[in-house]
Amino acid sequence: MPKSVTGPEIERLIQLLSRLPGLGPRSARRAALHLIKNRENLLEPLAGATREAAEKVKICSVCGNVDTSDPCVICSDERRDPSVIVVVEDVSDLWALERAAVLNCRYHVLGGTLSPLDGVGPEDLTINNLVSRVIEAQGTISEVIIAVNATVEGQTTAHFITDQLEGQSVKITRLAHGVPVGGELDYLDEGTLAAAIKSRSDF
User: Could you tell me which CATH number the domain at 8-56 has?
Assistant: First the structure.
């Protein structure tokens, strides 16, 4: 076993950084070294920000978003259309749609997708909460947009949600799948091309 060249505090910092998405052991060591070299400008402000986030960040009891208030700012915004709910897998998907700035609606974060092989069932997601939101809204929700990833698990989850909402007076739609803006056909995979053909629309 190789001998450690740093103290336990630095090793702990490296180990914690290596747990972040996209950071392996080598990248974590580089990041840790960069933080230490920039202690005043980066390390100390980062330590304060993470401490404050740990104390103040909450999970919205309505939609599952993360914020410092509950309900979150999106659920509390009266300017948003309450009749449309966009269902996403994770908070990162919610943020991505907000960056696109094409919708002014409410959201519902599932917390993942159905995956029997990984032991993730309906009870592990917030699907029941979504159904309850629709029922309790008593007809004020007119559309549920299922914006999950175009994976096998995502499509399985979308079909399950559709089945659960059957009988409710709500329109269920999903994001179109196909050729991305600026995409060249020669570089697209067969699945994307097939989805684009099947989802073709009038010109």
Answer: 1.10.8.420
